[in-house]
What does this fold into?
Amino acid sequence: MISPEQQRNDVFIQLSRAVFLLTESMDARLVAGTGTNISYAIRGARDRSGVAAVTGGLVVQDNTVKAAGVCGFGTDEQIAKILLTAMKFDPEIRCVATIRYTDAVRRILEDMFLECRTVDRRGQPPGVSTMDWGVASCCREGVPEAIVDPGTSKNNSVVYLFGEKPADVAGNIIMLSNRIIHIEL
It folds into this structure.
């Protein structure tokens, strides 16, 4: 049986490796205007203290992707909420990353045979968090690999990429990066 300390250490190590891969290979154009991050949760996480993410997220510096800070638990409330909501529908999905959304990005994700669903704000009840409700509304029939949130403006448009492990999610972002080299986003 893995101790809670060992599990947190494993989450930290796997997330740190994925962040390294992303800083080495992610196309900077995929960094969202509202911020990009990747998170990974311990099994059975119930709140953000069980979700690790990059402090300050991933940013663009000199046209390359850099980690703004170190990986840590409880560092990004928004991405933790997204992941915890998805985990209610499938506890095996313990990783999520946010990237920039464009129509071209969605087409390429679909060409990669990733299941994409879109947040439809028309059905949102008043007084409910858009993020929580939007993710939940897209996960009722299982957690897709990608949820597109077109937002209310171009800067708010993001894609949430889900997976069981950070290496899976980072791998999809790197494949996407390789496919957009000569495409205008």
User: Anything to note?
Assistant: The chain has a mean pLDDT of 93. The longest helix spans residues 4-25. The chain has five helices and nine strands.
